[in-house]
Amino acid sequence: MSPQTLCSFTLVITGAPYSSQAPQTALAFARAALANGHRIDRVFLYGDGVHLASALTSPPSDEVNWSQAWQDFLGSHDIAGFACIASALRRGIVDQSEQQRYELPANNLATPFTIAGLGEWVDSVAHSDRVIYFHNGG
Questions:
Q1: Is 84 a residue of the active site?
Q2: What share of the chain is helix, strand, coil (3-state, %, to 5)?
Q3: Considering the entire predicted model, what is its pTM?
Q4: Catalytic position from the list 45, 84, 94, 109
Q5: Local structure of 87: helix, strand or coil
Q6: What is the average per-residue pLDDT within 50-69?
Q7: How many other C-beta atoms are found inside a 10 Å radius of the C-beta of residue 37?
Q8: Residues spanned by the domain of 83
Q9: CA–CA separation, 93 vs 132, rounded Å?
Q10: Is residue 66 a part of any domain in this protein?
Q11: CATH code of the domain in which 21 resides
Q12: What tens digit of pLDDT does each residue of 68-93 get?
């Protein structure tokens, strides 16, 4: 691929905020990609990465709220954000539908994230030029 060829990317984040650099590195990459004319098709959260989709994250005021930073980024660029349903349920992150299904007292999936299965990830592999993983480093 020549340096001037533009790409579409799917980003897969598996590291949790505050215990890995994965969300921060992925956000820096996404901003740089857009600034250089590339496209981010979607962001898929898997494993501990689904913690980014929690509406209940509240770090101290002197720390970056990575969940909010991702929500703002996705919303301002109209990029789809998906949280793996199996990973999310294991970690207590649910949308209204899963709340009702499992008769839970509340839901906490942040907008604009959506709960999705691995089929969404498979679709991203088929439709993006590149899929880039941001792991927890462990």
A1: yes
A2: 40, 20, 40
A3: 0.93
A4: 84
A5: helix
A6: 96
A7: 9
A8: 8-134
A9: 24
A10: yes
A11: 3.40.1260.10
A12: 999 999 999 999 999 999 999 999 99
